[in-house]
Amino acid sequence: QVQLVESGGGLVQAGGSLRLSCAASESIFSFNVMAWYRQAPGKQRELVAAIASGGSTNYADSVKGRFTISRDNAKNMYLQMNSLKPEDTAVYYCNAVRFVLGANSHYWGQGTQVTVSS
Fold first, then answer.
1. How many other CB atoms sit within 10 Å of the CB of residue 114?
2. Which of 20-24, 28-32, 87-91 has the lowest mean pLDDT?
3. d(Cα 97, Cα 105) in Å, to the nearest integer?
4. Consecutive H or E run containing 109
5. Cβ neighbours of residue 82 under 8 Å, at least 6 residues apart?
6. Rounded CA separation 3/23 (Å)
């Protein structure tokens, strides 16, 4: 059973920074893609940033230039968030995807709250 545990959320003023961490129960290289999603109240969950096993990354337009996704060589993924805005307030989720026989298996963490005050 894959487990993903997020940490690092909190309350920060606009313009501040936070670093989110996601600890996986297995090597992150066993997943094809790892990503950060977020969900604000009353809104759909949206992709924030993703990193493929080969190292390529992509970002939502709203966070480009402010957020950076990274990983270590073991079981951890990170999201460095700079120049935070009130609209970044959301629950942030760690996601891992594994491609098996043409089907995708998605795994989710429990989420960590990020609140940005104006």
1. 22
2. 28-32
3. 6
4. none
5. 17, 66, 67, 68
6. 8
Question: Where are any strands of DSSP class E within 1-118?
Answer: 4-7, 10-13, 18-24, 33-39, 46-52, 57-59, 67-71, 76-81, 90-100, 103-108, 112-117
State the pLDDT at residue 70. 97
**In the structure, what pLDDT confidence band is assigned to residue 103 with cuts at 50, 70 and 90?**
confident
Examine the pLDDT at 102 and tell me if it is beyond 80: no
Q: Which two tokens stand for residue 86?
A: 């009130």
Adjacent-strand bridge partners of 116: 12
φ/ψ of 72, rounded to 5, equals -105, -170
What is the C-alpha to C-alpha distance for residues 67 and 57, in angstroms, rounded to an integer? Answer: 11
CB 9 within 8 A of CB 114: yes
The pLDDT of 68-76, averaged and rounded, is 95
The encoded tokens of residue 75 equal 């079981």
